[in-house]
């Protein structure tokens, strides 16, 4: 007799790959666009994930354009507070107990009075949302690899300055095909010296070499995506051995055309190679799936058993920047889920 599958929304997990604007509820975007008179393209209002093929540069550009339009609807501190509170509520509903949200404050600075005020508004919003929802909430400051490496250094210094106010890590996002990871090595050195975790994107739009660059040049402790490491068994071995976690976002990979179908995302390959993973939603606003849906996908399309799904949740918790006491509590919650 088989038992009914356990509810994945009740499985305690850590959510380590979620972008700021990309976390917005569609309804909120529509409301804010109305408030500011921003015209939204249908791709952002239809409720269906837009068809994008980010594997070619035009598709990626289109994705970035949609993201920019959504971002332009976040202008006032109240918008920021609302975004963070709702992202926290959505995460809690999906069983997330710890969220590390990723933001490049540069994008919000023009409306909020500059880089420092922007980051302060964000960190205040994070603190209140955490208090109101009970979710552990921290921030990764992410530099944009389309910009100058000096901008990244400025951001890294800023991130370090706010390390005791909720910034736990430093990231690098946008088109991996542009620039080299090593152009950003100084920024990452500043971040690491300041005690921040190195978590750049790699191995999404380009193959294993971009993951190796993140390890060699940026001393990544976690890799944003990293899925394409699956193409190189030696690299998988290296990730497994050094315990570097890949923040894998399966629904995003399919929406952006990195893989054609959910079953093509190499979750099994990484899992069986012993590479720790933290499943993430990336940009639910654009891809339509939040955190629990990523675990559902592992269950439905890759046959992950409840024991294996629990192990994925443990891997996400271990890779988080949560204090040891919080990790222990969440890990015992995972055991409780399995025992229930
Ligand atoms: Zn991302």
From TrEMBL:
GO molecular function: deaminase activity; hydrolase activity, acting on carbon-nitrogen (but not peptide) bonds, in cyclic amidines; metal ion binding
GO terms (BP aspect): purine ribonucleoside monophosphate biosynthetic process
Major enzyme class: hydrolase
PROSITE patterns the UniProt entry points to: A_DEAMINASE
Pfam (any one): A_deaminase
Presence of keyword Hydrolase: yes
Cofactor(s) of this protein: Zn(2+)
Sorted UniProt keywords: Hydrolase, Metal-binding, Zinc
Its EC number(s): 3.5.4.4
Protein name according to UniProt: Adenosine deaminase
Biological source species: Streptomyces montanisoli
Organism ancestry: Bacteria, Bacillati, Actinomycetota, Actinomycetes, Kitasatosporales
């Amino acid at each position: 007799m088989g038992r009914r599958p356990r509810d994945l929304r009740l499985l305690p997990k850590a959510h380590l790959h979620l972008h700021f604007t990309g976390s917005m509820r569609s309804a909120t975007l529509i409301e804010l666009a109305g408030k500011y008179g921003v015209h939204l393209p249908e791709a952002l209002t239809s409720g269906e994930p837009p068809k994008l093929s980010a594997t070619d540069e035009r598709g990626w550009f289109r994705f970035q354009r949609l993201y920019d339009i959504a971002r332009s609807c976040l202008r006032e501190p109240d918008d920021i507070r609302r975004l963070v509170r709702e992202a926290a509520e959505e995460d809690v509903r999906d069983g997330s107990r710890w969220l590390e949200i990723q933001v490049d404050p540069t994008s919000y600075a023009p409306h909020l009075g500059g880089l420092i005020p922007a980051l302060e508004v964000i960190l205040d919003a994070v603190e209140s949302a955490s208090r109101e929802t009970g979710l552990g909430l921290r921030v990764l400051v992410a530099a944009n690899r389309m910009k100058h490496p000096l901008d990244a250094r400025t951001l890294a210094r800023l991130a370090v300055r706010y390390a005791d106010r909720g910034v736990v890590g430093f990231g690098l996002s946008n088109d991996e095909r542009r620039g080299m990871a090593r152009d950003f090595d100084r920024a990452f050195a500043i971040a690491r010296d300041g005690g921040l975790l190195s978590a750049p994107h790699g191995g999404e739009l380009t193959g294993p070499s971009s993951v190796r660059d993140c390890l060699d040049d940026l001393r990544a402790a976690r890799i944003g995506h990293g899925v394409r490491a699956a193409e190189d068994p030696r690299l998988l071995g290296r990730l497994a051995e050094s315990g570097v976690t890949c923040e894998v976002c399966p629904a995003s990979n399919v929406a952006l055309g990195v893989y054609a179908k959910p079953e093509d995302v190499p979750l099994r390959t990484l899992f069986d190679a012993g590479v720790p993973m933290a499943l993430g939603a990336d940009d639910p606003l654009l891809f339509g799936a939040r955190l629990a849906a990523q675990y559902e996908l592992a269950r439905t399309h890759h046959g992950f058993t409840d024991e294996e799904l629990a192990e994925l949740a443990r891997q996400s918790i271990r890779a988080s920047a949560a204090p040891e006491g919080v990790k222990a509590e969440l890990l015992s919650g995972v055991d409780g889920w399995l025992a229930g």
